Amino acid sequence: MVPRDGTYEVKGSAELNLWDGSVPVRLTFLHKAADAAKELAAVKLEKGKRVALAGMAAAARAGDELVLLPRPDGAFTGGDVTLRDVEVAPSTEKK
Predict the structure, then answer these.
(1) What angle do CA 8, 11, 39 make, to 5 degrees?
(2) Nearest to residue 18, comparing CAs of 77, 83, 82?
(3) How confident is the model at residue 93 (pLDDT cuts 50, 70, 90)?
(4) Is 88 a domain residue?
(5) Is 67 within a domain?
(6) Which residues pair with residue 63 across a beta bridge?
(7) In this structure, is residue 68 part of a structural domain?
(8) How much is the pLDDT for 6?
(9) Closest residue by Cα to residue 49 from 78, 25, 73, 77
(10) Stretch 70-76: mean pLDDT
(11) For the segment 13-61, what is each residue's pLDDT rounded down to a tens digit?
(12) How far apart are CA 7 and CA 63, in angstroms?
């Protein structure tokens, strides 16, 4: 949940560990407000490969939620996504 209005960006990395198989999985970045949720970006995850979480940013109001959600595309037997050094912070980009 963001504490105040502003633009926030996500930094860090994600790594997929499937228990069996090699189904494609994408990590989606969602902006959830009181009245709706919207997918803003997605990163393709591959088994055993670390992927940088770059270019994920959202304008949000105080109380909104920014969500990272793994979504398998097909039959899924199980697995996990490890997030490393994840930080959600106000954007430092100059406009």
Answers:
(1) 60
(2) 77
(3) low
(4) no
(5) yes
(6) none
(7) yes
(8) 94
(9) 25
(10) 82
(11) 999 998 887 888 999 999 999 999 999 999 999 888 999 998 899 999 9
(12) 13
Cβ-based neighbour number of residue 36 at 10 Å: 7
Q: What residues are paired with 88 via a beta bridge?
A: 10
Long-range contacts of 33-42 (CB under 8 A, 24+ apart): 33/60, 33/61, 33/64, 34/63, 34/64, 37/67, 42/71
When divided into structural domains, the chain yields a total of: 1
Q: Is the pTM of this model over 0.90?
A: no
Looking at the chain, which runs of residues are DSSP E strands?
6-18, 25-32, 37-45, 50-52, 56-60, 65-72, 79-90
Tell me the residue range of the domain where 41 lies.
Answer: 6-75
Residue 34, domain member (yes or no): yes
